[in-house]
Design goal:
The protein is of the alpha/beta class. Helix content is about 50%, strand content about 10%.
Length: about 425
């Protein structure tokens, strides 16, 4: 009972005040900032959710998707309410899908994203460059870009990387949750001590194409190697501060120092498990309880479900709000700088988000919290989209500098013969 009381007290202490309406003067200031600078989110998993929940259909997304039988965090009405000006749509596939199957599944996910953009032309507009993001924003559209979430998606093929770029992919995360032929993941056993030799060639080819190197999910060694090898700034499309919450998915001081030196941008994630160590511990304890119940009742899923529900009533998940996201942003600023931070909510890719940020309409609440903390308009504009626009422009400039270099024909080295 002592542990139950501790958890309940922690949850109460962690709970933020109920979300307050944004006062008109603050909202006017937010609107003024976001009219000049597009708010660009680095990572939204709507295409994956549409595949998993709705058979890859892209209709019925105008409004009200939070009330669907299987709710979504994104729809056109809420994108507008959130003042979103640009969105990287993730074309994620699971990390255990590799080789030709990975290439096919990635093509299917690109098709979902491209059909999504085409279906809502009054709301979304495909953007392939920084200038096209700005033009779409001026037209009142959400500039839409694509991002691949793991180098396993290219099937170890430079040709596939180039063709995905032709289809609109403008960043590639080097790993997801598993180490691959290109690099070590931050949540798997390392094999390369960072980037592999083939991975270095992949990063250089991405530079030649003008594709942003994304370092969310990767190990510290991979992040440092990639920022050393890349001629353009990297991004972390949906990552948080390890100083604020020790978690292998988050970014430590050493990596943030390198981000400052290379002009790279860490885009903060809204998932409570990455924002709060209390939530991470709670999640591990819940997983342990689920394993115990499955061991006791392998023949009765209903008993397992009921047991977990009873456990959660005794040990409620700690509540995490907008303030926690602002804390991570400010910690990244302390360790890297105002030029090196952005927003990558990971919406529709997480089971739940920080209170007040559970849909794409929530971004103004985050800006209101930072305004309350004394942030200036220029620094809010950098956070919103100025920093990632600058990184993308530099990636495009590097591609122009490398335009006379031939496409890479690098392949994985064949495995050594068995001894």
């Amino acid at each position: 009972m002592r542990f139950a009381a501790f958890c309940l007290a922690a949850a109460i202490l962690a709970a933020p005040a109920a979300a307050q309406p944004i006062d008109p003067a603050t909202q006017k200031r937010i609107d003024r900032i976001l009219k000049r600078t597009p708010l660009i989110d680095g990572h939204n998993d709507l295409p994956g959710e549409l595949r998993e929940k709705y058979g890859s259909r892209v209709d019925n997304l105008a409004a009200g998707t939070d009330r669907l039988p299987q709710p979504l965090m994104t729809d056109m009405a809420r994108l507008r309410a959130g003042r979103v000006g640009g969105q990287f749509w993730s074309v994620y596939i699971p990390a255990n899908v590799t080789g030709p199957d990975a290439i096919q599944m990635t093509l299917e996910q690109i098709d979902v994203a491209r059909r999504l953009i085409a279906t809502y032309p009054d709301d979304l507009q495909l953007a392939l460059t920084a200038d096209e993001i700005v033009r779409a924003h001026r037209r009142g559209r959400v500039a839409s870009l694509l991002g691949m979430e793991g180098a396993h998606q290219i099937g170890d093929s430079m040709a596939a990387l180039r063709r995905f770029h032709d289809l609109g992919v403008r960043y590639m995360t080097l790993t997801h949750n598993k180490t691959n032929a290109v690099a070590d993941s931050g949540t798997d056993v390392p094999k390369h001590d960072g980037l592999s030799p083939f991975g270095e060639r992949v990063v250089r080819e991405m530079n030649r194409l003008g594709m942003l190197v994304d370092l969310s999910h990767v190990s510290t060694e991979t992040a440092l190697d990639a920022m050393r090898v890349s001629r353009a700034p990297a991004i972390f499309s949906h990552s948080n501060s390890m100083s604020a919450a020790p978690q292998p998915r988050n970014v430590n001081f050493q990596v943030l120092s390198a981000a400052r030196q290379t002009g790279s941008v860490v885009m903060v994630n809204f998932y409570p498990g990455f924002l709060s160590d209390r939530v991470r511990v709670w999640t591990s304890q819940r997983a342990g309880e689920e394993a115990r119940l499955l061991f006791l009742y392998p023949y009765d899923p209903q008993l397992v479900t009921q047991g977990l529900a009873d456990w959660e009533r005794i040990y409620p998940r700690p509540t995490v709000g907008v303030a926690a996201v602002a804390d991570h942003i400010e910690q990244i600023v302390r360790e890297s700088g105002f030029d090196n931070v952005g927003i990558g909510g990971d919406l529709d890719g997480i089971p739940y988000a920080a209170e007040g940020l559970g849909g794409v309409d929530g971004y103004p609440r985050l800006f209101a919290e930072l305004i309350r903390r004394g942030w200036s308009d220029p620094n809010l504009a950098k956070l919103a989209g100025g920093n990632v626009l600058r990184a993308l422009r530099r990636a495009e400039a590097v591609a122009q500098e490398m335009k006379d270099e031939p496409p890479s024909l690098a392949t994985l080295e064949p495995p050594a013969p068995a001894q």
